[in-house]
Design brief:
The chain has 20 helices and six strands. By secondary structure, it is mostly helical. The strands form two sheets. The protein has a four-stranded antiparallel β-sheet. It has a two-stranded antiparallel sheet with strand order 5-6. A hairpin with a 3-residue loop joins strand 1 and strand 2 (about 30-35). Helix 5 (about 115-150) packs antiparallel against helix 17 (about 385-395), helix 7 runs antiparallel to helix 8 and helix 15 (about 340-360) crosses helix 18. It is found in: Cell membrane. Keywords: Cell membrane, Kinase, Membrane, Phosphotransferase system, Sugar transport, Transferase, Transmembrane, Transmembrane helix, Transport.
């Protein structure tokens, strides 16, 4: 029997305490997210019993009703038929009453800084994650095609699909900027403009030309900001503060013209000189630190790097490893640290997704997890897995770290070495040449351990409710939103284990 969405929407509004109890409402890909004046006024048991409702949970100061694929229809009903503030559109009028009330409420509701940062990241990548799923699977298909039929990479059809798939990752800073601005209740156009400048063709040309530049006598760090997360997150936070400040202090008659000008003019130097380069500068330190640790501990460093790599990706520092890998191959003929660690991190992400697929009761989540696992293991595409599954569910990310550490340690102990650049996927195992048995053993251990640890630790499976158990309460309060940094080299016009220079430079892992 078809759902009556008007009736369902009205029942939800009534049972969360009525219009007077709703401060605002937004949504992610599966849930309605209410900010309630008093969450205790909501009749949770009644809501759970409604047809079409998959569950109810509370987290991040939000009363969340899980509706799955029906969430967009119900949200549109609320937006069109009820006088409720929705967070789907930012406040672009900037009245003088613009305050930080929402931010203060969220800060008071989050217990520590780590949770605050995590909530900000998750909320920022929510608009991006569905695009990542689509683009990531296109890359998987292209990667498989070129591994079987290398000449296909030269066809115009392949190239067009390749451009489509890569654009989602190349312009990720812009997409993240949009999500971050929405999370901070600011106008996305400002931060998108600033971040887009970092991808502007003439700016990219300066980066590629290795020119020396300065602004206000301060050196400008010129680096590739495509596929990064941190610059967009930091820029959005800065601009949200500047936006509130300038729209408050500039008189009404002048605000429309001068507030936008000052927001852009003040934020640009701060972003270009300080915020955007943070990932690049810190990344260089991290690379040197791992090289130093490897000189002392040897193979154990492979496990350490594989364990912390998810956080390196989220900080946008992973492209820093490419020059060191190239130098290592040129000087010693092999890479015994970075390539093995990056490959095993990808396997750990894929193994955790397999664990989620085996444990979850939600058919939709199971399908997503299997697709993400294939992307990680077969093609080295880990963004959907990291942001869409493992970071979102939290405990699988711990499994990724543990299994990566153990698998990396095994690879280091057995002496696995990559003798070419290639990709970090099982399609590229031949680049390990004489040590291929060592890396195969490490890969199997990593995938199996990651899946087993995920299943043992479990996760808050609030979305994993079968249609036969729609009225059962899910466990936990983990948000469904998820998506920094691309975790593997783009699918280029070459087979999966190409040694072409263009792939060497593009391969940040």
């Amino acid at each position: 029997m078809a759902l009556d969405f008007d009736q369902l929407t009205a029942a939800i509004i009534e049972n969360v305490g009525g219009l007077e109890n709703i401060s605002s409402v937004t949504h992610c890909v599966t849930r309605l997210r209410f900010h309630l004046v008093d969450k205790d006024k909501a009749d949770t048991e009644a809501i759970k019993k409604m047809p079409g409702v998959l569950g109810v949970t509370y987290g991040m100061q939000q009363y969340q009703i899980i509706l799955g694929k029906n969430v967009f229809t119900v949200f549109n009903k609320i937006e069109n038929n009820y006088s409720i503030k929705t967070d789907d559109n930012s406040n672009e009028n900037h009245s003088e009453e613009l305050t930080d009330n929402t931010t203060k409420r969220e800060k008071n509701g989050i217990k520590n800084v780590f949770q605050n940062i995590l909530a900000y990241i998750i909320g920022s990548v929510t608009p991006f994650i569905t695009v990542v799923y689509g683009a990531g699977m296109i890359r998987v298909v292209l990667s498989v095609i070129t591994s079987i039929w290398p000449s296909a990479a030269n066809s115009p059809t392949y190239m067009m699909f390749n451009f489509l798939a890569l654009s989602a990752f190349y312009f990720m800073p812009i997409l993240i900027a949009y999500g971050a601005a929405k999370q901070l209740k600011s106008n996305p156009a400002f931060v998108i403009t600033i971040v887009a400048m970092l991808l502007y063709p003439d700016f990219v040309e300066l980066v590629e030309g290795h020119a020396d530049m300065s602004m206000f006598s301060i050196p400008v760090v010129l680096t590739d900001y495509s596929q990064t997360l941190l610059p967009a997150l930091l820029s959005a936070y800065l601009i949200s503060k500047l936006e509130k400040f300038f729209y408050k202090v500039i008189p009404g008659l002048l605000r429309a013209v001068f507030a936008p000008m000052f927001i852009l003019a003040v934020s640009m130097p701060i972003v270009v000189l300080f915020l955007a380069p943070i990932g690049a500068v810190v990344g260089q330190w991290v690379v040197h630190a791992f090289v130093w640790v490897y000189s002392i501990t040897g193979g154990l460093t492979v496990g350490l790097l594989a364990a912390v790599f998810p956080f390196i990706i989220m900080s946008g520092m992973n492209m820093m490893f490419a020059p060191v890998m190239v130098q290592s191959l040129a000087s010693s003929g092999f890479d015994a640290l970075f390539r093995p660690a990056l490959l095993l991190h990808n396997m750990a992400e894929g193994g955790a997704c397999l664990g989620v697929a085996l444990k979850t009761k939600n058919k939709e989540l199971k399908t997503e997890a299997i697709g993400c696992a294939i992307g990680c293991i077969v093609s080295g595409v880990t963004e959907p897995a990291l942001y869409g599954i493992n970071l979102r569910l939290k405990k699988p990310l711990l499994a990724v770290m543990i299994s990566g550490a153990i698998g990396g340690g095994v690879a280091g102990f057995l002496g696995a070495k990559a003798f070419e650049m290639g990709y970090s996927s099982i399609l590229a195992l031949p680049i390990f040449e004489g040590t291929i048995i060592a890396i195969i053993v490490a890969v199997v251990i990593t995938i199996v351990l990651s899946g087993m640890i995920t299943m043992v630790l479990g996760f808050d499976d609030a979305q994993s409710i079968s249609t036969m158990k729609q009225n059962e309460a899910p466990v936990g309060d983990v948000p469904t939103s998820s998506t920094s940094k691309q975790n593997e080299t783009p699918v280029g016009n070459a087979p999966a284990f190409s040694t072409g220079k263009e792939n060497e430079l593009a391969d940040g892992r």
